[in-house]
Write a structure and sequence with these properties.
Length: 379
């Protein structure tokens, strides 16, 4: 019982901190961002590489060959390529405790040239206990087209910490995964179509017609009319110089254009396990009433009149605020006034001890009733 109360208090504090941060962030105004942070150039991308190899030199922590026959086959094939022929009778009895079969993965950056080095990740695919201290033998890394683009080899470094005392031991991190810094050398360059034609395509990170139109307006203002044309809500076609030197300078200037992105669509993300609630500033509420157990939430629209001062030249305006009341026990009601903010509702529910399950049920009910003007995503 004490542990449950402690966990509930910790969850409550976590939600309070998150919502306080959310309220401060949502109060900010929109600001300009560089175009390189909003979009990428079509065709300028990374390419994944993968390869198979052997990690040797392990301190008895390698694969158990009776359960991983592919390790024995790989060792025999490697020795044959090096001119060592083994009798067929000896291969079935090989005990290779210092060898482990591994997969090697990395990403080939755009415009990589032969001779450049890459960091690689080495992961055991057998039942090796650890690959710490091992050495990766030369392993070719292939792309999706089956061509070899890099060769990996080197000493494997496994991060983490270990401690042992009086019959107990503690190990942090995965011992079956390691990295080799600058462990791969690029052998083949990926052809790029960036320098072909008289135009390039920009791809927005998020599909948004408003942001696309703002990007077109900013680019045309900087480089002249009809330089940029939006193809849809994500792709923008831009006329660029033909020469490679001029095109690189043009793209450098293009990436540093400041654009004010459009407001994103309203969205609420709820983690049902921890009770964390994240929302953006576009979320709003409409009139509704929700009853859940001994909790009840009532949101009413409250009309108010804003009267300017005498001789100020202003006009009388009618405002509509949200009056939020939350009742946790009979006869006890918590009132919140101001704009229709979901953050206020969640903070008030948290203050009276609502659990993550209560938050989930209430937010789902608001969404089903049409009061929550946002997309609700539960993770």
């Amino acid at each position: 019982m004490i542990q449950r109360l402690f966990l509930a208090q910790q969850t409550s504090r976590l939600v309070s901190v998150l919502l306080a941060s959310i309220t401060l962030l949502s109060a900010g105004v929109a600001h300009a961002e560089r175009l390189k942070d909003l979009a990428s150039i079509q065709g300028v991308r990374q390419n994944q590489l993968v390869g198979y190899g052997l990690a040797v030199g392990l301190d008895g922590s390698g694969d158990q060959t009776t359960q991983t026959p592919f390790t024995v086959q790989s060792v025999v094939s490697m020795l044959q390529q090096l001119g060592v022929n083994l009798p067929s009778t000896s291969t079935s009895n090989m005990q290779l405790k210092n060898v482990a079969a591994v997969m090697v993965t990395t990403s080939l950056p755009a415009f990589s040239q032969p001779g450049q080095t890459l960091d690689v990740t080495v992961s055991s695919i057998g039942n090796a206990k650890s690959i710490r201290g091992g050495t990766l033998l030369m392993a070719p890394l292939k792309g999706a087209d089956g061509q070899i683009y890099a060769i990996a080899q080197g000493n494997i470094v496994v991060g983490g910490a270990g401690a042992s005392a009086a019959g107990s031991s503690t190990t942090i991190n995965q011992l079956s995964v390691g990295r080799i810094s600058a462990g791969a050398t690029v052998e083949r360059a990926v052809p790029s179509a960036l320098g072909q034609g008289d135009a390039i395509n920009l791809e927005l990170n998020d599909n948004d017609f408003s942001t696309a139109s703002r990007v077109v307006e900013a680019v045309n203002k900087r480089f002249g009319f009809d330089t940029a044309v939006a193809q849809d809500g994500r792709v923008i076609r831009i006329r660029a110089p033909v020469g490679s030197g001029e095109r690189v300078a043009f793209l450098g200037a293009l990436e540093n254009i400041d654009v004010i992105p459009a407001r994103v669509s309203a969205k609420v993300i709820l983690n049902a396990r921890t009770g964390s609630v994240v929302m953006n500033q576009s979320v709003s509420l409409d009139t509704c009433a929700v009853s859940h157990g001994n909790l009840s939430v009532v949101i009413n629209a409250e009309n108010s009149i804003s009267q300017p001062g005498a001789l100020s030249g202003g006009q009388t305006a009618a405002n509509q605020n949200a009056q939020i009341s939350i009742n946790s026990t009979p006869g006890k009601v918590m009132y919140l006034k101001g704009g229709a903010s979901l953050a206020d509702v969640v903070k008030a529910l948290n203050a009276i001890g609502a659990t993550p399950q209560d938050l989930l049920a209430i937010l789902q009910a608001m969404k089903a009733a049409g009061s929550l003007r946002a997309e609700l995503e539960i993770i």
